[in-house]
From TrEMBL:
Its EC number is 5.6.2.4. Residues 13-234 form the UvrD-like helicase ATP-binding domain. It is an enzyme of class 5 (isomerase). One of its GO terms (molecular function) is helicase activity. It catalyses: ATP + H2O = ADP + phosphate + H(+); Couples ATP hydrolysis with the unwinding of duplex DNA by translocating in the 3'-5' direction. Keywords: ATP-binding, Helicase, Hydrolase, Isomerase, Nucleotide-binding. This is DNA 3'-5' helicase. Transmembrane segments: none annotated. Residues 235-479 form the UvrD-like helicase C-terminal domain. It comes from the Bacteria. The lineage of its organism: Bacteria, Bacillati, Actinomycetota, Actinomycetes, Pseudonocardiales. InterPro entries: DNA_helicase_UvrD-like_C, DNA_helicase_UvrD/REP, P-loop_NTPase, UvrD-like_ATP-bd.
Length: 552
């Protein structure tokens, strides 16, 4: 352990004065409002290191970090683990609001009474609530709120556990989520750090509270500590962001002299139709890849219906053998433990050295063996099966490009693991068809990728975090950053609705780019083959948004 005065930011980062203050304040609630790329998430990781390393968060107390998305919570957890080491990071709980609420319910369930009373083996279902037995995701936060509102023992327990609380992307906090934080930690000794950017408030449709950063500052007597830097984007891109900020939040505009420089590029490209657009964007991507840009540093952003709007680009990339991933689909999938197990099994039987996948897979399956004897028997059966399967896939006759050859192998493995073990992996798997549906989706996703070139290792790589160009919705790209960003379809027909929300979403999209931003629009987009609720064939460029791309 070191003294607070001895602590230096991890990785030798230089923190601006307010960031340093927010990272190291021992006992003050703070709210850090700052624009894109200012280092808000980084600041939370640094603060976690400070609190754990200096003992300001004294053992055995813990830090709670609450985020909105599974990816964001995982990113922050990983960042802290990498920086501070596994031992210290073990006292850092990086959870989504849903996961935090579920923890409260699991730990203090008997506090729920009457209609809300729940049996110990309650289930969570996406849609249907059954009194006493099954709740939906939407019930989690209200039930957790009922627990902390009605039960002083629960409030005391959670306050005892956490000495510090972090709130990331706090501009998108809903009324219920805010209440949960306020009732749980208001009037307590917990020290709270909230970070956010009102210009990136894109969850209004989901009930994000207007002015929540100010409300938090008032309710928690939190000191506002604005940040002014942007570590992400090159000057040309920052000037475009600044033109948008001038309209969205004039007080936050940066002085022109801070944004001088020629680094960075913005292109606006108009096309007659989506096929011309697909060809031109694929040419650009091919060019970037030849220049040595990593696939994981390229993102294609679409406001809505990405699988339809980006379909032509997807086929063009497939024809050229350029890997891409529809994030909406596969990233949600890989967060599922059953899907991760299937992919890890495929990695183990295909790759020569896959220690992480092997350890993860064995960790899951062994954890669940009932007795030592049974465990040993199961272990040897599984190892034999893996050995034989590895040999089989190496046979020249093995048709690796066809899904039909893989499907029985996956099912044989899952049968060996057993239904009860699979069902125990997640509360949602015990009822209905969710488990089978997920396994089928995992196999299908692998099938689509393996069809590209028959290379299983490459297919699995594309299905994992890196090594593929990502197609994302704007909601999914929150908090992420890429060298090259293409916003596909800057058109009235895609960027419609409440003008403030449209601006915020466009702002989130353009501010993901580090060096190069491409904005496209097309005059026509053919109606997709599949049924679709709303589709306009004729398109109009969104002039107001595109105008921000041009210097005066
Ligand atoms: N003090 C710093 N010095 C150098 N680089 C930094 C610093 N703080 C953050 N960065 C880097 O700047 C980039 C943006 O940081 P981060 O993602 O934390 O910003 P953010 O404010 O959360 O952005 P956004 O709100 O747009 O998602 C990251 O690549 C991060 O590693």
């Amino acid at each position: 352990m070191i003294g607070p005065d001895q602590w230096r930011p991890v990785d030798d980062l230089v923190l601006e004065p307010n960031a340093m203050k927010a990272a190291t304040t021992p006992d003050e609630n703070v709210v850090v409002a700052a624009g894109p790329g200012a280092g808000k998430t980084e600041l939370l990781a640094q603060r976690a290191d400070f609190l754990l390393r200096t003992g300001q968060c004294p053992y055995p107390r813990r830090i709670l970090a609450v985020s909105f998305k599974v990816d964001a919570a995982r990113n922050l957890r990983e960042r802290v683990r990498r920086r501070s080491g596994t031992q210290l990071a073990a006292r850092f709980d990086s959870l989504t609001f849903h996961a935090f609420a579920k923890r409260l319910i699991d730990n203090f369930r008997p506090a729920l009474t009457g209609y809300n009373a729940l049996s110990p083996d309650y289930r969570i279902d996406p849609a249907t609530r059954i009194a006493g037995e099954q709740i939906t995701f939407a019930d989690l936060v209200p039930l957790a709120l009922e627990i902390v509102e009605s039960n002083a023992y629960a409030r005391g327990g959670i306050r005892q556990t956490y000495s510090h609380v972090f709130l990331d992307e706090f501009q998108d906090c809903t009324g219920q989520q805010y209440q949960l934080i306020k009732v749980t930690f208001g009037q307590s000794t917990a020290v709270l750090t909230a970070v956010g950017d009102t210009k990136q408030r894109i969850m209004v449709w989901a009930g994000a509270l207007d002015g929540v950063l100010q409300t938090f500052a008032d309710d928690f007597s939190a000191q506002p500590l604005p940040l002014y830097q942007n570590f992400r984007s090159a000057p040309r891109l920052r000037r475009m962001q600044n033109r948008m900020i001038a309209e969205m939040d004039p007080e936050a505009v940066s002085p022109a002299e801070d944004l001088a420089g020629d680094d960075g590029a913005i292109q606006v490209r108009g096309f007659d139709n989506e096929y011309d657009e697909a060809e031109a964007v694929a040419d650009l991507i091919e060019h970037w890849l030849k220049e040595g840009v990593e696939t994981s540093e390229i993102a294609i952003l679409v406001r809505q219906q990405p699988h339809l709007v980006a379909a032509a680009l997807g086929s063009e990339l497939t024809d050229r053998g350029i890997p891409f991933r529809n994030e909406q689909e596969s990233q949600d999938l890989t967060a599922e433990p059953a899907v991760a197990l299937v992919f890890n099994f495929l990695r183990v039987i295909n790759g020569d050295s896959q220690p992480d996948a092997y350890a993860e897979m064995m960790g899951v399956v062994n954890r669940l063996s009932a007795s030592e004897d049974e465990g040993a028997r199961f272990d040897s059966q599984l190892k034999r099966m893996l050995r034989e399967t590895r040999e089989a896939v190496r046979e020249p006759a093995f048709k690796s490009g066809e899904l039909a050859t893989w499907r029985p192998l996956v099912h044989e493995f899952l049968q060996l693991v057993s239904r009860s073990v699979l069902a125990a992996m997640s509360p949602g798997y015990q009822q209905g068809t969710r488990l089978d549906d997920l396994i089928e989706q995992a196999v299908e996703a692998f099938g689509r990728e393996i069809a590209v070139d028959g290379d299983a290792v490459a297919a699995l790589k594309r299905l994992s975090e890196t090594d593929a160009i990502r197609f994302l919705t704007i909601h999914k790209c929150k908090g992420l950053e890429f060298e090259k960003v293409v916003v596909l379809g800057v058109e009235e027909q895609l960027f419609w609705g409440n003008p403030t929300t449209v601006m915020s979403e466009f702002f989130v999209a353009v501010s993901r780019a580090k060096h190069h931003l491409v904005l496209t629009h097309a005059k026509r987009r053919e109606r997709p083959g599949q049924p679709v609720s709303r589709w306009d064939v004729l398109r109009t460029q969104h002039q107001k948004l595109l105008d921000f791309a041009y210097e005066d």
